[in-house]
């Protein structure tokens, strides 16, 4: 899994979505001390810039819908979100969960703890991204295997050959056409579907 190194903090772009008050100023100044590139916005902008790695955001009922829209319209990989809350109750916790925050800091904001929350949230975000990419690759691989299995079944039935022979045929055709076995399998499936629809008069 990828790990955020402390030396990488200066490469982070952080958006602070917070009113211009003492708490927002503490967050801004501490992030600048850490060395992050910072931007400040309030109220939440319509869309999140693609280059933002981390979002520190105030949580409030009045701006919650706008905040969710901003995060939903973000381009590229989703940023790590750190919620800034002024009290704890079930309603506030639900707002935090709604935006999928990876860390929470409470008001009044203190400089101590910001670095820890930043590192933990960013690291969790990187690991989540890596897992999503791995799941995507596994799903694509599984889909490819299913297509290959279906194509082999078609060849076995249409040519009266064994599964091993069907796979060799599939591989040979893929090599001759310079495509992947998965692509060849899709071509065989599509051709079989087309033939079947013609035979059925559809």
Description:
The chain has 202 residues and is of the alpha/beta class. The protein has 2 domains: 6-133, Rossmann fold, CATH 3.40.50.2300; 136-199, Arc Repressor Mutant, subunit A (Orthogonal Bundle). Helix content is 55%, strand content 12%. The chain is built from 6 helices and 5 strands. It has helices spanning 22-34, 64-72, 90-98, 114-159, 163-177, 181-199; strands spanning 13-17, 37-41, 54-58, 80-85, 103-106. It has a 5-stranded parallel β-sheet. α4 crosses α5 (163-177) and α4 (114-159) crosses α6 (181-199).
Give a short synopsis of this structure.
The chain is of the alpha/beta class and 202 residues long.
**Overall mean confidence score, pLDDT:** 89
What is the overall number of helices?
6
Main sheet: strand order: 2-1-3-4-5
Per CATH, the class of the largest domain reads Alpha Beta
Structural class of the helices, strands and pairings?
Answer: alpha/beta
Main β-sheet description: 5 strands, parallel
DSSP E strands, number: 5
Instruction: Quickly give the CATH architecture of the largest domain.
Output: 3-Layer(aba) Sandwich
State the CATH topology of the largest domain: Rossmann fold
């Amino acid at each position: 899994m990828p790990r955020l190194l402390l030396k990488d903090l200066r490469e982070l772009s952080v958006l602070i979505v917070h009113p211009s008050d003492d708490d927002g100023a503490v967050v801004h100044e501490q992030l600048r001390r850490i060395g992050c590139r910072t931007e400040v916005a309030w109220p939440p902008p319509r869309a999140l810039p693609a280059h933002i790695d981390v979002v520190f955001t105030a949580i409030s009922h009045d701006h919650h819908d706008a905040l969710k829209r901003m995060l939903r319209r973000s381009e590229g990989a989703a940023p790590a979100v750190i919620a800034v809350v002024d009290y704890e109750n079930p309603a506030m916790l639900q707002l935090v969960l709604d935006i999928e925050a990876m860390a929470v800091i409470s008001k009044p904001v203190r400089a101590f703890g910001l670095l820890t929350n930043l590192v933990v949230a960013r690291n969790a975000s990187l690991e989540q991204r890596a897992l999503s990419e791995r799941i995507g690759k596994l799903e694509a691989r599984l889909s490819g295997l299913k297509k290959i299995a279906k194509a082999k079944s078609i060849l076995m039935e249409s040519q009266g050959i064994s599964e091993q022979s069907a796979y060799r045929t599939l591989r040979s055709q893929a090599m001759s056409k310079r495509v992947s076995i998965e692509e060849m399998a899709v071509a065989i499936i599509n051709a079989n579907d087309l033939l079947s629809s013609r035979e059925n008069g559809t």
